[in-house]
Predict the 3D structure of the following.
Amino acid sequence: TVSHLVRNITAPVKGIVGPWVHKYPHFAVPEPRIGFLQEALRWWDHWLKGDNNGIMAEPTIAAYIQDGVAPQASYDARPGIWVEGDQWPLQATCMEFKLTLLGNLIKAQDLENHQAKGPHAAINSPLTTGSASGEYCIIWCGPDFPTDQRQDDANSLCFETQKMAEAVSILGGAVFKTSVTSDQNCGHLILRLCDVATD
C-alpha cells in the first residue's frame, strides 16, 4: 500500500516501510523500531506550522530490506538494511525467471538451453494449503509469521532456482504471468515466493 501511495499521489508524500506487523512502528515488532511519533510531528509541524525543519529535503521513501533468516512464527527483531530514495521502485532492476518442465526457475537470459514453451501442469490443492505461510495481514504482535512451509509445498506446484551464487535482495512486488484453465466455476490461484534455505 505504501508503495502505491508514493507512486500515485501527486501531492507531497513520504513513505516508510519497515519490518513491522500492522501496528505503529514505535512499538510494533519485529524491531528495529523508529521514532514514528517524532516523524509524524515533524511532518505536521512543517505543513501546519510552516516549520522549515528539513523533512521535505529528505528522501521520499525509506524501506527496510530484511535478511533471510530461519522461519519462525514470531521475531523480536529482524536483521537487514534501510534503503532510501525519491521514487518507487527505488531501482528499476528486474530479475526475470521462466518456469521449466523439470520444476525449475531459470533466468530468462539462460533459457536458450531449455524449452522455449512453459510447462503444462495440473494441481488440485486442499483448502488447508498455505496454512504455514502466515497471516495475510499480520495485525497482532503474536506468532503470525510464516513458518516452515514444506507441508504447503507438498500440496503445491513448486518451481525452484538453483542455489544463488550471491545474495539477492528483493524489494517490491513480484509479477507472475500464466494461463489457467479450470474444470470448476471458481477457484483460487495463490502464489508463494519463498526463500529456501540450503538445509
In short: Residues 36-49 form the longest helix (14 residues).
